[in-house]
Design goal:
The chain has five helices and five strands. It is an alpha+beta fold and about 150 residues long. The chain has a domain of about 60 residues. Strands 3-4-5 form a three-stranded antiparallel sheet, with no helix packed on it. Strand 4 and strand 5 form a beta hairpin. The longest helix has 11 residues. The chain is globular and about 60 Å long. The protein starts with a helix and ends with a helix. The relative contact order is 0.14.
């Protein structure tokens, strides 16, 4: 049974050959960079660890690891707006697209400064929210999903 068949059976409440496996690839069950580094070490793999969620320190699991663990799922994510760039300061702090400054605190990055802290009502009215419809968020998403569908099981 292919991964796609297995997953479809499971979501339709039918009996697959085994439970589909999802290995830390989304915001709900991601794998922390420390755990991922230990997993790579255990598997004898080396690679630079990339994060897809800076705040939670969630690592991008590389394809060779997903295959070794028989993972049945792969993810295609929307992106940050095309006009947004994370800049990390010397102390490790950075601002998200809402303008909230975060800095490392243990295993996660904690909010330490909010752009509306101490503001009056006029500043709140003038605050620009991130645009959920900014085209850069979904640029190439359909093509990546189609490629994944057409080239994998």
């Amino acid at each position: 049974m292919t991964s796609r068949e297995r997953f479809r059976k499971a979501i339709h409440h039918e009996q697959p050959d085994r439970v589909p496996i999802d290995v830390g690839q989304d915001f709900h069950n991601g794998i922390h960079e420390i755990a991922y580094a230990r997993l790579l070490d255990h598997l004898g793999e080396t690679d630079e660890i990339r994060l897809y969620d800076r705040m939670q320190h969630l690592a991008v699991v590389k394809e060779s690891v997903l295959q070794r663990l028989h993972a049945d799922t792969r993810y295609v994510f929307a992106q940050a707006p095309s006009n947004f760039q994370v800049v990390v300061a010397d102390d490790g702090s950075w601002a998200d697209e809402w303008g909230i400054v975060r800095k490392p605190c243990g295993y996660y990055d904690q909010a330490c400064r909010h752009p509306l802290a101490g503001c009056d009502l006029s500043a709140v009215r003038d605050y620009r929210l991130p645009d959920p419809l900014e085209p850069g968020r979904v640029a190439g998403l359909r093509e990546r999903a189609r490629l994944m569908h057409d080239t994998t099981d």
